């Protein structure tokens, strides 16, 4: 049978219906605007904390403490206070809006509980990271930004190693895929790729999100592939196999290290710019601190956040290439293009499938669903497809 990739792709995308496509377009465009509003919220929170002088008062009370404890407590205090001030925005962005679009069914109480836990963990660990940054500022002088970028790379690597063991189980229940045809098929795939059976897991992703998803997390001995129960419930056996093949591609090809290297380099550049631009931003926010003063951490973090937002197109480009590679790995090894296309279309509910080239470049962490389905259909046209 002759396959027309363009026609097959249009059939998959148009099959969603005009109403669903319009809803996805509105949701996706709204997400892009949320990036700007989030930056403005961050600027407001930074301005409030600086003007209140809250970190000045905390630093005064800690004058007799050791330098390390003083820096850590100032950083932790800022991260907790800024999270609390940002909480109304976070509730709207991550719960109210997501609920309105049907992307989550999580009760508000559970959302707030998990958010509080995340807030505390982030503050404690973030405090340790900035303790290291300010120690490097003191010890390495003008090249502190270079060393701090390396510290960021080490921190990300440590987080990747420990998160599956210490952090992720706090928020979700991870367990082996239940016995049955799905597990049997996935174990065969794991054997083909040299992945230990205990690294293929299912988790209750529906607790937080109704999105059809799977992921790779961890490195070295903690690396694993986890499939959301949403995907398990909504997908056919072939779709689960195709999606798992995609995640196996990430796992086997080590895409995570590509991102660690990129983030370390961007952190170096971000700290370099923060070193040069700190005085100007400090004046804007009314801060009288310098870059080596931990009381200036609100300004430092805002500059890093702004740079991170401006660097997002580059980050997205690298991530998209990894997603293309993982799709192609699934097509080569699992060879179920229609199943992969069917699974991809399910993600179009929360990622508009037909963005402009500029929208995709600036905002999309994944290639457009339309491109990915077309890629699968072109594979189907060129290769013999497995048939059960």
Could you characterize the architecture of this molecule?
73% of the residues lie in helices and 4% in strands. By secondary structure, it is mainly alpha-helical. Strands 1-2-4-3 form a four-stranded mixed sheet. Strand 3 (214-217) and strand 4 (224-228) form a beta hairpin. The mean pLDDT is 93.
Report a brief summary of the structure.
This protein has helices at 5-14, 18-52, 54-61, 67-100, 108-140, 144-171, 181-193, 229-234, 237-253, 255-285, 297-310, 312-333, 337-347, 357-363, 369-382, and strands spanning 174-176, 200-203, 214-217, 224-228. The chain has 388 residues and is mainly α.
Sequence stretches where pLDDT stays below 50 over 5 or more residues = none
Question: Gap between N and C termini, in Å?
Answer: 17 Å
Beta content comes to under 5%
Structural class: mainly alpha
Overall number of strands = 4
Fraction of residues in H or I helices: over 70%
Arithmetic mean pLDDT: 93
**If strands are numbered along the chain, what order do they take across the biggest sheet?**
1-2-4-3
In sequence order, what are the helices and strands, one letter per element? HHHHHHEHEEEHHHHHHHH
Give keywords.
elongated; single chain; mainly alpha; 388 residues; 4 strands
List the SSEs and their pairings:
Blueprint: H1 5-14, H2 18-52, H3 54-61, H4 67-100, H5 108-140, H6 144-171, E1 174-176, H7 181-193, E2 200-203, E3 214-217, E4 224-228, H8 229-234, H9 237-253, H10 255-285, H11 297-310, H12 312-333, H13 337-347, H14 357-363, H15 369-382
Parallel strand pairs: 2-4
Antiparallel strand pairs: 1-2, 3-4
Helix pairs in contact: 1-15, 2-4, 2-11, 4-5, 5-6, 6-10, 7-9, 9-12, 9-13, 10-11, 10-12, 12-15, 13-15
């Amino acid at each position: 049978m002759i396959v027309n990739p363009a026609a097959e792709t249009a059939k998959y995308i148009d099959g969603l219906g005009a109403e669903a496509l319009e809803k996805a377009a509105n949701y996706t465009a709204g997400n892009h605007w949320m990036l700007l509003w989030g930056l403005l919220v961050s600027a407001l929170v930074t301005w409030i904390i600086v003007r209140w002088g809250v970190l000045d008062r905390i630093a005064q009370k800690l004058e007799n403490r050791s330098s390390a404890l003083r820096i850590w407590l100032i950083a932790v205090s800022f991260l907790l206070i800024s999270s609390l001030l940002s909480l109304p925005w976070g509730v709207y962005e991550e719960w109210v809006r997501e609920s309105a679009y049907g992307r989550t069914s999580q009760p508000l109480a559970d959302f707030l509980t998990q958010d509080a836990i995340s807030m505390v963990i982030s503050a404690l660990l973030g405090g340790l990271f900035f303790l290291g940054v300010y120690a490097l500022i003191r010890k390495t002088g003008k090249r502190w930004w270079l060393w701090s970028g390396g510290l960021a790379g080490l921190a990300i690597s440590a987080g990747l190693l420990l998160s599956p063991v210490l952090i992720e189980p706090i928020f979700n229940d991870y367990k082996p895929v239940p016995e049955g045809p799905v597990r049997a098929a996935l174990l065969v795939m794991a054997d083909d790729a040299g992945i230990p059976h205990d690294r293929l897991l299912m988790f209750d992703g529906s607790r937080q999100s109704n999105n059809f998803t799977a992921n790779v997390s961890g490195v070295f001995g903690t690396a694993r592939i986890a499939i959301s129960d949403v995907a398990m419930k909504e997908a056919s056996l072939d779709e689960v196999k195709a999606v798992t093949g995609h995640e196996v591609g990430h796992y086997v090809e080590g895409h995570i290290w590509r991102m660690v290297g990129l983030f370390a380099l961007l952190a170096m550049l971000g700290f370099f710019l923060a070193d040069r631009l700190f005085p100007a931003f400090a004046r804007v926010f009314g801060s009288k601190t310098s870059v080596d003063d931990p009381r200036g951490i609100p300004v430092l973090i805002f500059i890093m956040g702004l740079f991170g937002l401006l660097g997002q197109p580059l980050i997205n480009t690298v991530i998209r290439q990894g997603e293309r590679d993982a799709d192609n790995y699934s097509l080569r090894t699992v060879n179920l293009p229609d199943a992969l296309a069917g699974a991809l279309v399910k993600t179009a509910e929360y990622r508009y499938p037909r963005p402009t080239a500029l929208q995709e470049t600036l905002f999309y962490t994944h290639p457009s669903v339309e491109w990915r389905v077309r890629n699968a259909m072109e594979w189907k046209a060129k290769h013999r497809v497995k048939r059960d």
